[in-house]
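Q: My collaborator sent me two sequences in one message, no labels, and asked for predicted structures for both. Can we handle them in order? The first one she listed is below.
A: Yes, handling them in the order given. First sequence, followed by its structure tokens:
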Amino acid sequence: QVQLVESGGGLVQAGGSLRLSCAASGTIFNIRSMGWYRQAPGKQRELVATITIGGSTNYADSVKGRFTISRDNAGNTLYLQMNSLKPEDTAAYSCNVRSMLRDYWGQGTQVSVSS
């Protein structure tokens, strides 16, 4: 059974940094991409960053230049390095793995940025 477990969230002051991790257990076949999404209270879930199996990355305009998505060589752990955090980055961050057949989601980790 596939599980995605996020960690690394927390409370940080504006301008600070956090590094999120997403550890995958189980086997996922035919992965197309992995990514991070976030959802703030009262808002829809939005894409933060994705990385394809080939290594191509894509970022939301709001995080370009501040966030970096990466994964380990085995592809079992996904990371999101978040620098220069802003209060508007406050949200629940979830990792996603997209395969040919379905999406997998983690439970999420809360990131709160104080001004």
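Q: And the one she listed second?
A: Here it is, processed independently of the first:
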Amino acid sequence: QVQLIESGGGLVQAGSSLRLSCVASGRTFSNVAMGWFRQAPGKEREFVATIIWSGTRHAYADSVKGRFTISRDNAKNTVWLQMNSLKPEDTAVYYCAAAGAGFYSEYVPRSENEMGYWGKGTLVTVSS
């Protein structure tokens, strides 16, 4: 059974940092892009950051650029999202995702339609 399990969410004050983790099990995702998306209350799910299989290319939403950093360790089947200088508008459920295709691709996906596997999410709440 393929699973993506997120952890690291919580309630923090504005300006704080959090590090989200996503551990994959059931198969390896070392050869595809992985990423993070988020869904705020009452809003559509949106792209946050993605990283290609090798970790050498990334993409970020403009709203998080310069504050969030995505990274991965294929040996641990894990991807992280380091979130610094958190703002109340970062409050959302954060979902880990893995591409369903594009093995060893240099293309950096940004659309949730390009992701084939999803975790159940972890809640991040940023108070002002």
